Amino acid sequence: GQNIDQPTEMTATEGAIVQINCTYQTSGFNGLFWYQQHAGEAPTFLSYNVLDGLEEKGRFSSFLSRSKGYSYLLLKELQMKDSASYLCASSGGYQKVTFGIGTKLQVIP
Amino acid sequence: DVKVTQSSRYLVKRTGEKVFLECVQDMDHENMFWYRQDPGLGLRLIYFSYDVKMKEKGDIPEGYSVSREKKERFSLILESASTNQTSMYLCASSPTGGGSNQPQHFGDGTRLSIL
To answer: Could you say which DSSP state residue B83 is in?
Structure first.
């Protein structure tokens, strides 16, 4: 089966760093996606981790621990435009991707 | 850039109607998906297709069917619309290959209201 858990909401200050955690239980686990979704818009791809460790992409980094069933998305130097929902999604089996409910991040001045 | 186009941004239909939602992608992707997104429930997979004329049930296929007659087009059909099918519907596509799942590219969504 598939189960994904992430916080529902978070608030952080402009210029700060925020970490959004995600735990998963996925049979036949392949990898872990992170997507960003602004209100009223389509989700857009941020990162995909297959191997353990941290992958950095500009202000955004994503970490995976396969043995712990745990991932996080790290956003640095927060900007107001980073206010969005962040979706964690685990990949298990052929093209089978299960999404979490998303973490709504509010960036405040 | 990949373009996934959904035929309608907003749609209002009546209970019992047969409803068609259309999705077209322009990047020759093998895989296409239909999700619905509801507050507190996240994105849930209805159906997906990995090739023309092929389809697989997702997590919530009841009350829906799909059609994929051409590679670029994937249609979602609500056989007899009900009020609990009021939702945001998102189409996505992805390529096959690389030995692992590839990122999905989403359309802008169709907000469907069933009255």
So the answer is: G
What lies within 8 Å, CB to CB, of B38 at 6+ separation is B44, B87, B88
The angle at the Cα of A41, spanning A71 to B109, to the nearest 5 degrees, equals 105
Alpha-carbon dihedral sign for residues B39, B45, B46, B52 = positive
Q: Which residues in chain B have their CB less than 8 angstroms from residue A42's CB?
A: 4, 90, 106-109
A30, two tokens: 């392949």
Question: Which chain A residues have a beta carbon less than 8 Å from that of B43?
Answer: 43, 87, 89, 99
For residue A99, the chain B residue with the least C-alpha distance is B43
Rounded CA separation B21/A99 (Å): 22
Q: pLDDT tens digit string along A80-90?
A: 999 999 999 99
Nearest to B101 among A95, A99, A101 (CB): A95
Q: How far separated are the first and last CA of chain A, in Å rounded?
A: 41
Please give the average per-residue pLDDT across B40-52, as a whole number.
92
Closest CA–CA distance from residue A8 to any residue of chain B (Å): 8
Check: CB of residue A26 under 8 Å from CB of residue A90: yes
Helix or strand holding residue A53 (H, E): strand A53-57
Token pair for residue B86?
Answer: 């009021």
